[in-house]
Amino acid sequence: MKKLALLLCLVLLLTACQTPSAVPDGSTDTESRAVESTNERPTESTELPTEESTEPSPDEDTAETIRQNLPEVFSYHLEEMYMNLAQDGFSQTIDQETAQDGSFHFTLTQRHWDHTAEFEDETVREFYYQQEDGVFVCYARLNGEAPERIPMTKAEEADLNASMELVVGAPALLPDYLTDFTDEGIDAESGLRRCTYRMSVQDILNDETLLASFVYLVCSVSGYTYQATDDLYVTAALYLDDAMRPVKLTHDFSELKPFVLSEGALSGEFALQTDLVYLTYEFDYDTPETIPVPANFIP
User: Of 135, 170, 163, 167, which Cα lies nearest the Cα of 149?
Assistant: First the structure.
């Protein structure tokens, strides 16, 4: 029980008006390689490849187009859950309403439980962010207690924006290491354009995104240690509107489930026709001009 509570704290993103932790060396190396690649230019003495061209496929072009054109202002709803039925599990829900002027309201609800220890806990964190005389200010409240007002430095504001990229930015939604990206066209059920792609669990665990935190926590709580030889993948389905904006993103953890769910949970999932391990996003682009801080939220 204590281990789960600690892990929930370790992987939590955007839960307080604090400077997020530094990005590990893996991400820094990736950025360095990207810079080096950008700076490389063929010279007269450079031998250019004569083999078959490696130009991106139309589907890869679609993925890059989506990355480059992700909207800057949007609201979103996120749900994630791991439930090992009669044993233990956790869930997390994030709701963020964003305004055109950059103010936003952010609510995070976390639950974790251990049926074997007859333990269950829920934490609700709520925040309002807005500019006040050139200072970005956070109003925070935990579990309905008295709110706090926390002015943020420019560095903290920049770190907050950087951490958001790991939750809803291109690195989180369409990571560079995705494979088998396929534009399937209009989905008959939703009426939206549907694209699918796969990500290796190894690459996910080496990342710093919200998906990486979720998979790490699932493995930790279940007691499963990932081995490269397991060669597991997560399949994602991204639904787009006519403007190629993400509307919904789902993740299929079918390959991982036999390693992190008990046989009883797997049987129960099949019998109940439900999903015991999931992570979904929903996006909304109908955003207000501003989001004022309610009077009862100002200390």
Answer: 135
229 DSSP assignment: G
Half-sphere exposure of 226 (CA within 13 A, CB side): 22
Q: Pairing state of beta strands 246-252 and 135-142?
A: unpaired
**DSSP secondary structure letters along 98-167:** E-TTS-EEEEEEEEEEEGGGTEEEEEEEEEEEEEETTEEEEEEEETT---EEEEE-HHHHHHHHHHHHHH
Give pLDDT tens digits along the chain (299 positions). 333 333 343 344 444 344 333 333 333 333 333 233 333 333 333 444 445 545 556 677 889 999 999 999 999 999 999 999 889 999 999 999 999 999 999 999 999 999 888 899 999 999 999 999 999 999 999 999 999 999 999 999 999 999 999 999 999 999 999 999 999 999 999 999 999 999 999 999 999 999 999 999 999 999 999 999 999 999 999 999 999 999 999 999 999 999 999 999 999 999 989 999 999 999 999 999 999 999 999 99
CA distance 252 to 102: 33
Distance CA 104, CA 277 (A): 29
CA distance 75 to 286: 8
d(CA 284, CA 90): 26
Which CA distances in Å does 239 have to 72, 98, 187, 189?
18, 21, 8, 11
Query: Which residue's entry shows tokens 């943020």?
Result: 152
CA distance 123 to 108: 8
Instruction: Report how far residue 62's alpha carbon sits from residue 83's, in angstroms, rounded to the nearest whole number.
Output: 35
